[in-house]
Amino acid sequence: MLRLLSLALGAAALALGASPAVMAKKKAAPPAEPPAWTTDAYASTYRPVASAPVLISGATVLIGNGERLDGADVLLQEGRIAAVGVGLTAPAGALRVDGSGKWVTPGIIDNHSHLGVYSSPGTESHADGNEMVNPVTAQVWAEHSVWPQDPGFAAALAGGVTTLQLLPGSANLVGGRGVTLKNVPSVDVQGMKFPGAPYGLKMACGENPKRVYGQRGGPMTRMGNVAGYRAAFIEAQEYAKRRAGADPGKRDLKLDTLAAAMAGEIQVHIHCYRADEIALMLDLAREFEFRIASIHHGVEAYKIADRLAGQGVCASLWADWWGFKMEAFDGIQENLVMVDRPPNSCAIVHSDSPEGIQRLNQEAAKAMAAGRRAGIEVAPERAIRWLTQNPARSLGILDQTGTLEAGKMGDVVLWNGTPFSSYALAEKVWIDGALMYDRKDPARQPVSDFHLGQTDSQGGTP
Fold it and tell me: Predicted confidence band at 39 (pLDDT cuts at 50, 70, 90)?
């Protein structure tokens, strides 16, 4: 943003015939306040549930950063990770949880979900994820579609998911802003918003925009897609210069978002399958000086794994979805483990599915098994990073969550055994140190309005 402002001032000086030396002698004007691209009129009202200290003892602990501790303890206090180690002492009044024979991990983070914007039951009236009126709809915000009563949130919590990014769909070149939420019950979305998390920007390349807009004025080709991105970002560059000047003009919500992405204030997430198109998106980011936080779906990411790692770009992937359209045809089951191999890699298991989000741990296990068959062994302490540390990195919240390190949020899952098993169950889930889910206690199993009054033969909800 400051670079754009300096360019604008330099151009004005040359137009007036002033040399750099003359400009340097003049009294420096006070720096202009940068435009508040991300001013949040819908700020988070989330407050952690008050809770007593908790000591989980004697468990196998996966820290989330590649470390593993056997027979270890985890202490939660004042909503945060207080300590992780062996032989920890519980403070007075602490709740003790026996972790013998069990595993502890950070809360799972899904950085690609449409819960709340494509809510259950899946009716047309709940289809609020794609604003298919224009190829570029950067002005829309996913949070303004979120229905907190979507029963999918509770189902995801039972699978150990404590944080998730809700994104607009992929019909458009630029679909709008995503929002990162804590997976807690709330009447409104502000009560779920992850405090301080940056916004995401959803973009899409390839077949989807072509299919949706090919008979509606375009783009109808991949070259039309790229021309559309470039035109939008060029307009946003001009807007940023104008907003930084003496006559900022009228505010534009669409251009606010695109300018914020170029200023590094919004995390850019791009739906993109083919390796050649992923490379194009990396070039687009270089041209307009924005950073891609993650490429999503990327079934051909394995072909470009070194370049992704070298540029610090995460790849949010499925374990084995492929072949459902031409751009998904060259997928392989070893994709994720191959993306994970280079130094500084950032492989992520994501869902993009209200069912898949309930078993992300098993999706990671499938990728581990595919790697093993190919001679690539991935230890549990590394694989857990696909579900915790790496998605936190892509969302810009790694300083707060994603690993079990002292001072971070107390987002913790206690599993009945190794998480990477078809028999794995999340027994207890804490969010900010508060027990939000207990498999053995119906009072600790959130029920949405949609499920009220619906019980099975054992008295539980469907």
Answer: low
Check whether the bond before 342 is cis (ω within 30° of 0). no
Whether the Cβ atoms of residue 176 and residue 132 lie closer than 8 Å to each other: no
C-beta of residue 226 within 8 angstroms of C-beta of residue 282: no
User: Which H helix or E strand runs over 315?
Assistant: strand 314-317
pLDDT higher than 50, residue 92: yes
Measured distance CA(346)–CA(109) in Å, rounded: 14
- The mean pLDDT of 367-384, rounded to a whole number, is 98
The structural domains of the chain, with segments of one domain joined by +, span 108-402
Q: Which amino acid is at 358?
A: Q
Indicate the burial class of 330 (C-beta count within 10 angstroms; 0-12, 13-18, 19 or more): middle
pLDDT level of residue 247 (50, 70, 90 thresholds) = very high
- Tens of pLDDT, residue by residue over 118-137, are 999 889 999 999 999 999 99
**373: CB partners within 8 A, 6+ apart:** none
What sign results for the dihedral spanned by CA atoms 329, 333, 336, 341?
negative
User: Encoding tokens for residue 393?
Assistant: 């990195």
d(CA 386, CA 416): 20
- In this structure, the number of other CB atoms found within 10 A of the CB of residue 215 comes to 8
What span, in angstroms and rounded, lies between the C-alpha atoms of 250 and 136?
A: 19
In whole angstroms, give the CA distance from residue 393 to residue 345: 11
CB 165 within 8 A of CB 110: yes
Alpha carbon separation from 197 to 43, 128, 392, 400 (Å, rounded): 11, 22, 10, 9
Question: In this structure, are residues 388 and 64 in contact, taking their beta carbons and an 8 Å threshold?
Answer: yes
Model pTM? 0.91
Residues 6+ apart with CB under 8 A from 120: 126, 150, 151, 152, 354, 450
Peptide bond into 446 cis (omega under 30): no
Distance CA 10, CA 13 (A): 5
Pairing of strands 426-431, 161-166: unpaired
- Beta-strand ranges (E) seen in 19-78 are 54-62, 68-77
Beta bridge partners of 178: 200
> Looking at this protein, which amino acid is placed at residue 178?
G
State which amino acid sits at residue 158.
Answer: A
Write down the CATH number for the domain with range 108-402: 3.20.20.140
Q: Give me the mean pLDDT over the 211-217 stretch.
A: 96
Residue 299 tokens read as 């079934």
Query: Which is more confidently placed, 174 or 5?
Result: 174
Q: What confidence category does residue 48 fall into, taking pLDDT thresholds of 50, 70 and 90?
A: very high
pLDDT on residue 34 = 52
434: nearest Cα among 48, 161, 156? 48
Q: Name the pairing type of β-strands 103-106 and 412-415.
A: antiparallel
